[in-house]
């Protein structure tokens, strides 16, 4: 019994001493595990809305702040905003709602410092919001934003 305990203690001691060494396989990586994207590359984001609403949620506001931070130090050539709606309700009402969503996003972006960019707004309403099976797509309650940015010269 004493021999078994002594062996277990020796194995544990060796294992712990191996953990304390400064050279391990994780320290010999030549490349980073995750690398940041290229600076000043264009990107796309989506803002989601509650049903029948064009009001920006707190999450949407945070996304816009993050977009501004990502574009900091870059030339903002254009911002394309496309408002969408789901297939619930009248097509005319959905088109008007998608326009209000696009306008709400562009106004918020201008307030975040994107005001000097050329804005291109579009609204598609509920066009394409139904699958061939007739199922509605609720994730269309959004505005898609395409940021066209480039490195400053």
From TrEMBL:
InterPro entries in alphabetical order: Bact_OuterMem_StrucFunc, OMP_bac, OmpA-like, OmpA-like_sf
PROSITE patterns: OMPA_2, PROKAR_LIPOPROTEIN
Keyword terms: Cell outer membrane, Cell projection, Cilium, Flagellum, Membrane, Signal
SUPFAM superfamilies recorded: OmpA-like (SSF103088)
Domain OmpA-like: 36-151
Top-rank lineage group of the source organism: Bacteria
Localisation: Cell outer membrane
Pfam families: OmpA
Keyword Membrane: yes
Predominant subcellular localization, coarse grouping: membrane
Cellular compartments per GO CC: cell outer membrane
Signal sequence coordinates: 1-20
Keyword Signal appears in the UniProt entry: yes
Name of the protein in question: Flagellar motor protein MotB
The species this protein was found in: Caulobacter segnis
């Amino acid at each position: 019994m004493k021999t078994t305990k002594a062996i277990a203690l020796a194995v544990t001691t060796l294992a712990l001493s191996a953990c304390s060494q400064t050279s391990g396989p994780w320290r010999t990586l030549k490349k980073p595990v995750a690398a940041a994207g290229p600076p000043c590359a264009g990107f796309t984001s989506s803002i989601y809305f509650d049903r029948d609403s064009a009001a920006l949620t707190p999450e949407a506001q945070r996304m816009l702040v993050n977009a501004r931070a990502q574009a900091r130090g870059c030339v903002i050539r254009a911002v394309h905003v496309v408002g969408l709606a789901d297939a619930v309700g009248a097509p005319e009402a959905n088109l008007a709602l998608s326009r209000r969503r696009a306008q709400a996003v562009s106004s918020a972006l201008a307030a975040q410092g994107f005001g000097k960019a050329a804005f291109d707004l579009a609204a598609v309403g509920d066009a394409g919001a139904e699958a061939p099976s007739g199922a509605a797509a609720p994730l269309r309650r959004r505005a898609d934003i395409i940021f066209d940015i480039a490195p400053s010269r």
